[in-house]
Amino acid sequence: MNNLYKNVKNINIPDNALDILNKLSEAGFEAYIVGGCVRDSLLGREPMDWDITTNAHPLEVKKLFKRTIDTGIKHGTVTVMKGQEGYEVTTYRVDGDYKDHRHPESVTFTPMLREDLRRRDFTINAMAWNPDKGLVDEFGGIDDLNAGIIRCVGDPMERFDEDALRILRALRFSAQLGYDIEEDTARAAKTLSDTLQRVSAERIQTELIKIMTSDRPTRLLEGRELGINKVILPELDEAIACDQNTPHHQWNVGEHSLRAAETIRNDKILRLSMLLHDIGKPSCKTTDEAGIDHFKGHAEVGAEMANNILRRLKMDNASIKKICLLVRYHDIMMKTEPTDKLVRKMLSVIGPENLDDLISVKKADVSAQSSYMQEEKLLGIERLKDKALEIIERGDALCLADLAVKGADLIEAGIKPGKEMGDCLKAMLADVLNTPSHNTREYLLRHIKNYL
Ligand code: CTP
Asked: What pLDDT, on the 0 to 100 scale, is given for residue 5?
């Protein structure tokens, strides 16, 4: 065994969690921190939350602590409040039958810690620790942490059959930790991947975001082999199957997209934008006489598809709007000289507040293409950014609110509120984007007929 995890007597747990362990222990019960927090502590990662497992029954737990919440009494979970923080304390349990591939029909309490650990998904998640006993690792969790392996506890077919979400969690942990999925575990995942259909869109969204914001979004390529993508994101499989015979590219559409995601800053919106930026390509692909592939109109089609995909995943509206905008315009101004006029028009379409993100998307896109003209493309993006910043700095009008006339001025000039006024303001903006010097109240009102 690697030396890395020998010193497990010293997991650094927060005082509050330690107090809970001590109190349970003083009352004669067993109590351990368990699951993700043990795994993350051993890896030197900051645990998200500290779960506690105990042989005390929920009512006994409630008696011991002043402030508790009945989080899931039926499933043995009581949340113990310490200040503002809650700690889930769950009675050792074994799960009954899983009827829907997600939730146990019933749970039974057990006096044995081992039984509780045995029902958990992966060996690396099935360890418990307390300061007195140290690490309890009955299923080879430490060995798998050291070897970098995601392996189900016991029979993987049973673990995945109990809860289909675990299939996706296997891929997610492999992306987060850079671990391989053990052979039998991978085989079972593949066999049962269709059962992922019963997992809610919200859960799938959460896991997909965790994969995409991990250090290794390219692990989603393995999601194709495992049969996961065909359930959660079939469009990605089509992208992976879509070759790009053009000097600009060296990867298929899916791999290019995932590699681009891997290079961009770790932000949910940006990562998902890269995942989806070329999702329209497979349906727009044409091949010319020379055998070169083209993808005309893919950004537009991609934005529509991204919208459908993200709605299907129950993403929030603000995120959907932003991602679709970045997908739609990821290719804008790539082949044109960034003149003042064109860059103003671009800014008016994307909104100056989105410039930084659009530039990041463009750079990540180019970085995951071939080396053909890559330098020139990256320089072009820099020039576009400089020009855009210059225009923003100068204060050129970019939206209706920047116009030198307001609605009231137009009413005074005899324009009817509603469509007529809207069209007039839009025409004024179009003119001002071309010629900023026209943006004076005097000029616009004097030429009002031109805008009707
Ligand atoms: N668990 C499980 N099957 C699941 C979900 C969770 O067996 N489908 C068990 C695992 O032992 C896991 C623990 O419950 O470690 C806590 O689950 P959760 O908080 O969802 O995940 P973590 O492992 O803590 O990982 P993360 O916080 O990164 O989601």
From this structure: 54
